[in-house]
Amino acid sequence: TNNVPNTMSNNIAVNEGQVAAPVTIRIEGACINPKITKIINGEDVAYIKFNNLTLGANDVLEIQTAFGQKGVWLNGNTVFNKLDFSSEFFSLDVGENEIEFSDESGNRTAAIHFIYKNLFLTV
What we know:
- By secondary structure, the chain is an all-beta fold.
- 0% of the residues lie in helices and 41% in strands.
- The strands form three sheets. Strands 9-8-7-2-11 form a five-stranded antiparallel sheet, with no helix packed on it.
- It is globular and about 45 Å long.
- The chain starts with 11 loop residues before the first strand and ends in an 8-residue tail after the last strand.
C-alpha cells in the first residue's frame, strides 16, 4: 500500500486507488468566499463553497472530507457556519478528477493544496 500523500498539479487530481478517496483541502492566502468544484467528464458534480468568508494573506482554511472527520477550519477554528448549505464533502472518484478553485476577489493570491491517499481494498 502506498501511503505517500499525493498532491495535485494542473488542477487534475488522479486517484489511482480502487475506491473513492477523501481529501484534505488547504487554502493558504487571500481570497473571498472560496469555492472548490469537482468536475467529472466536463460536468460539475459537487462543490464546497463558503459565504461571508474572507481570508487574509496569512490565513489557512482547511477542509476535511473523510468520514468521521468532516469539517472546515480557519486558522484552527471551526467555520462550519460559513459553509454554503448546498456544499458537499466530496471524495475523489477513481481516475481523473478535475478540480476548479474560484473565489469572488477577482485577484486572489491564495494557494490551494489537495492532499489525499490512493486507497485499496484488501482481502
